[in-house]
């Protein structure tokens, strides 16, 4: 099957065929009208290249460092929940694929494999995505376990005081299949999700996740762990400045895969505002809508230090397990390398704002050069 796959997007159709409707819809859908879901992709298509020619591109260096860890490329794996719904090996397969590609995997709080189980797959640089539960002992325990299991950073999700309205999940009465648990919470009696009249996950979040979460809690987290904290879910300059003030080690520009508040801008559209506000004090990353190596280049040209992919991981996992995730990472890597080559950039630091032209640039043609 993998013979005819030539790009990342093709995995979605295969996943749709293979997965139960409830599961595919859960992975694929966005909030409300799914306007942002569409725009996360389409906003990339409104950015054009200004390639430079006649540069020696014999050797292309895609390596970079993230929070001091060297990785093979600025393409990393975003946290996506409940991966064993996609494939029996779930997060194990994803962890092995990330490690083989020499990049970072972020494990979801709501993984169907525990931090210890993922650590047991072998070496690799791994981050832990954290939801803050009402019971802070649960949070402290989980953070300690992640740290003990060798995780290197926390990606604190800040855009989910309640779950966004995902109509597919309401229609399907989404719940975690009975043979699976949220493994990190199993021993705490929070591993199961009750059936509900709407989305079982929405009910679970309403019951367990702390809506009072605020900037003081970002400070509190720093008192219980030595892991650096990435604030995931920032879309504005104002919140960027507050995140830096609160001691965040980095920022992930994210709209939660367009699954929370609909009609927020595409992440690639919000990126430059955040980068400017960060003033180089912390690295800024992006997730949402990245499906091509050209998208990766555009994000870096706008100031991102790297990107994370989410849905391509679960769709390729559903289609071909670990081999699928490896293939997605390889295809994005190859496309990104080709984009750099044809743009005249031999290393990441050579990718500049002048290599692209955005819609904004076209509206106000600035003599930027």
From TrEMBL:
Q: What is its EC number?
A: 1.1.3.15
Give the protein's recorded name.
(S)-2-hydroxy-acid oxidase
Q: Keyword Cell inner membrane: yes or no? A: no
Concerning SUPFAM superfamilies, the annotation shows: FMN-linked oxidoreductases
Location in the cell reads:
Peroxisome
Pathway(s) annotated for this protein in UniProt: Photosynthesis; photorespiration; glycine from 2-phosphoglycolate: step 2/3
Please name the PROSITE patterns in this protein's record: FMN_HYDROXY_ACID_DH_1, FMN_HYDROXY_ACID_DH_2
Where does the record place the catalytic residues? 256
């Amino acid at each position: 099957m993998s013979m005819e796959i030539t790009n990342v997007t093709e995995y979605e159709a295969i996943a749709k065929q293979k997965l139960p409707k409830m599961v595919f819809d859960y992975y694929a859908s966005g909030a409300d009208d799914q306007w942002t879901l569409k725009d996360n992709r389409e906003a990339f298509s409104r950015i054009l290249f200004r390639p430079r020619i006649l540069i020696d591109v014999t050797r292309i260096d895609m390596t970079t460092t993230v929070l001091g860890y060297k990785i093979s490329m600025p393409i990393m794996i975003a946290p996506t929940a409940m991966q064993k719904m996609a494939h029996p090996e779930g997060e194990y397969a994803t962890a092995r694929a990330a490690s083989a590609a020499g990049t970072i995997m972020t494990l979801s709080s709501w993984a169907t494999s525990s931090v210890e189980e993922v650590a047991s797959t072998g070496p690799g640089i791994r981050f832990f995505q954290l939801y803050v539960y009402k019971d802070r002992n649960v949070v402290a325990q989980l953070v300690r376990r992640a740290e003990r299991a060798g995780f290197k950073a926390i990606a604190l999700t800040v855009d989910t005081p309640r779950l966004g309205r995902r109509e597919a999940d309401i229609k399907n009465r989404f719940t975690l299949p009975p043979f699976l648990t949220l493994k990190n919470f199993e021993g705490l009696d929070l591993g199961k999700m009750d059936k509900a009249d709407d989305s079982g996950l929405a009910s679970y979040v309403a019951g367990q996740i702390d809506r009072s979460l605020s900037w003081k809690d970002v400070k509190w987290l720093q008192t219980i762990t030595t892991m650096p904290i990435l604030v995931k879910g920032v879309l504005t300059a104002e919140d960027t400045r507050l995140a830096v003030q609160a001691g965040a080690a980095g920022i992930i520009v994210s709209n939660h895969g367009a699954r929370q508040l609909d009609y927020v801008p595409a992440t690639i559209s919000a990126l430059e505002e955040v980068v400017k506000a960060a003033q180089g004090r912390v690295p800024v990353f992006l997730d949402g809508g990245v499906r091509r190596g050209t998208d990766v280049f555009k994000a870096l040209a706008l100031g991102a230090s790297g990107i994370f992919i989410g849905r391509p991981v679960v769709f390729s996992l559903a289609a071909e397990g670990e081999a699928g995730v490896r293939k997605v990472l390889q295809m994005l890597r190859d496309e990104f390398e080709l984009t750099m080559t044809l743009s005249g950039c031999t290393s990441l630091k050579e990718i500049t704002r002048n290599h692209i032209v955005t819609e904004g640039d076209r509206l106000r043609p600035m003599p930027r050069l």
